[in-house]
Amino acid sequence: MSDDSLDEWEIFQELSDELKRKIRLAVVYRGGAIYVTKDDEVFGFGKNLTGFLGTGDKQSRTEHTKIEQLCGQNIQDLQFAYLTFFAISATGSVYAWGKNDNGQLGLGTKKDTWIPTKIEGNLETKRVVQVACSDYHTLVLTSDREVFSFGWNKYGQLGLGHNEDQSLPKKLDFFAAGGVVTAVACLVFSSLALLDSGQVFVWGKNEDGILGHSEDDVEKQNIPRKVPGLEGITITRIVCGLNHALALSNDGKVYSWGWNGSGQLGNGTDENSHEPTLIFGIGGRIRDVASNYNYSVSVAITEADDVIIWGWLNGSQNKSPTKTSFKSLDEVFAKLPILAFTFRPLRLKLNDDPIVEKNTANESPEWLKKYFNDADTADIVFVVEGKKIYAHKTILLMRCAVFRTMFQGNWKESNESEQIIKHHSYDVFFAFLRYFYTNQVDMQPVLALELFALAHFYQMTDLQKESLKIIERGVTVENAASIYDRAILLAAEVPTDLKIPF
Predict the structure, then answer these.
(1) Which neighbouring-strand residues pair with 117?
(2) CA distance 225 to 183
(3) Which pTM was predicted?
(4) Long-range contacts of range 316-325, CB-CB < 8 Å, 24 or more positions apart?
(5) How far from each other are the two terminal CA atoms of the chain, in whole angstroms?
(6) Considering Cα of 104, then 106, then 111, then 115, what sign does the dihedral take?
(7) What digits encode the pLDDT tens for the residues 84-124?
């Protein structure tokens, strides 16, 4: 995503080009904006009726106001509902602010706070990679694929097996789930989770049939259960509106269910559906979908970059998929009248760093290369697919801020000499660690995409660039489909602005 993409949003159009070049992450909500600079400073400006700006009050700001609590934290993600707001740092810490009458901020109280405050308790030694929220409850996903929940629990939407509210994060159990969780989502009174097996689990209130059952048959459920009707379908992405869900399959099809008052299910009616139903008439294989808690519209983008919408948009109800002139998913939400907001953070492309470029271009000294995967001198072992890779903590922490925090901070990995890697292939993790010692990458484009995702997770921007070069150089007509399939499977890890160059 380039700096020009900020100009799609009216609130950023008046900023100087110099300032826009400094922004690496930004969100927009109801006339206000928060942005993070490449110098790791965080500012808010604009309207602030809901306390979105994190300034400790609800006063609008014409001046760009520094959000001190988030500065210096290397903020990588910002998420929000209507009255609750969250920021995630590169080390996986979560900061929360907003309405808290049900403990939905996870701070151990039910007192509102309008200043970003770090969530502690069970998350203190965890690395959070995703936050999903309604205005009443919150889910977080950690790097080891554990799910924690907190907030209002009248309908069992926390998935804890009871109906008691929680003001501190509590871990969920996915009994006999047959996989690990890769993504979570919150609807107004219920919750969803996607597993690496392609299965979707749901729990909470069965409003509008969102649990996949008739409301006459099931009122609520307080533990995660598989969504019926998706058997034999591999789902790779889930998104939710206020009370409807979209599921994207690995063959580029979209299924919808839940509330349909504005036609947001795309089934040609405005009747609710408790059965996940394939949406027809989109006109091509879908590569991504979007929806949001704050607006009753569903959006998809095809392989041919056609943007398709259904639901309520700009005063018009579209009960069936309708092709638009929009160029991206983000642009749809940028053009909403009055209520324009980002459905995901805007991640601006980093300018080339000449220091990184120089280091990347130079080969590592021969003596350093010889120590990679050397069992005699290593002090850390990574076990991937049952095979060991030997490394040195000093080398890793010198080149990677995430490893530096991991080995020097209060993480469970800090004192462990052996770590089990569960969600990456041996070949890719081997190439990842080898890069620390050699500055060299040599692999097939399909694997380079997984390496890109791994480098993104560990905040290795130089390795991200090298991975993209391999993809761009190596894509052909013959391997394009397999690369694209791999991109979909990695959707939870690869930044959503990544576009496979073919």
Answers:
(1) 96
(2) 15
(3) 0.74
(4) 317/262, 317/263, 317/270, 318/263, 319/263, 319/266, 319/267, 319/268, 319/269, 319/270, 320/263, 320/266, 320/267, 320/268, 320/281, 321/266, 321/279, 321/280, 321/281, 321/282, 321/283, 323/283
(5) 17
(6) negative
(7) 999 999 888 999 999 999 999 999 999 999 999 999 999 98
